[in-house]
Amino acid sequence: RDAGVRVALARIGIVLDQGGGALGKMLTPFRLGVGGPIGEGSQPFPWVHRADVVGAIVHALDTEAFSGPFNLVGPEEASMDAFAAVLARVLHRPNLFRVPAFALKLAVGDFAEAILTGQNAPPDALLASGYRFAFPTLERRSKTFFPPTVGLAGKVTPLVTTIWRRIRYALLAISSLIAIGTLGYRLLGGG
Fold first, then answer.
1. Which of 35, 104, 47 is nearest to 72 (CA)?
2. How far apart (Å, rounded) are the C-alpha atoms in residues 90 and 189?
3. How far apart are the first and last CA of the chain?
4. Which of 25, 93, 117, 119 has the largest CB neighbor count within 10 A?
5. Which parts of the chain sit beneath pLDDT 50?
């Protein structure tokens, strides 16, 4: 700013993209029918569609009066429970099981903290500047990645890969139950 250059700082939420990232990690359990909210579920889930990340940054560059920090998240406030419900509905899968915090930390490492605590970050400055979101709701965003004609799994997967994934998740679930049982046994004074 001191050099006379306009500065706009984007604080980007959890970018949902079919190609991977947070959504890629969350899809497999849902596709296997064991997906559900992460952690307690009531935490905010500040999501944004990849197309809106690009669109908002272009908008910030093109809008001369736009400067300063801005939250780059979707305008629809959603909780982790709401996100899991939409994802399950769009994939035609159940939304039954909660993912415990320790399992998420094993799966995504340090990124888990952002998902487990969440943060309300309304995009007020972005909306006030005139930006119109291409994907303002989770439901609309989800349908772009999982159109009804694609089918339940989203894409055809070789049978061997599907079976291997199910075996891996079954083994992870079994090892988690063993760890929980061992901890409970120790807490109750048994060894």
1. 47
2. 46
3. 63
4. 93
5. 147-160
Tokens of 186: 């120790």
Q: What pLDDT score does 138 carry?
A: 80
Q: Quote the CA–CA distance of 110 and 72 in Å, as a whole number.
A: 21
Q: Which two tokens stand for residue 12?
A: 């980007």
Q: How far is CA 81 from CA 9, 24, 39, 77, 98, in A?
A: 29, 18, 9, 12, 9
CA–CA distance, 26 with 35 (Å, rounded to integer): 8
CA distance 101 to 183: 16
What would the pLDDT profile of 147-156 be if each residue is shown by its tens digit? 443 344 444 4
3-state secondary structure of 72: strand
Q: Choose among 145, 154, 83, 79: nearest CA to 117.
A: 79
**Which pTM does this prediction carry?**
0.67
> Which tokens go with 7?
């500065």
Q: Would you state the pLDDT for residue 149?
A: 37
The alpha carbon of 124 is separated from its chain's Cα centroid by a whole number of angstroms, namely: 21
Token digits of residue 2: 């001191």
Give Cβ neighbours of residue 7 (< 8 Å, ≥ 6 apart). Answer: 1, 67, 68
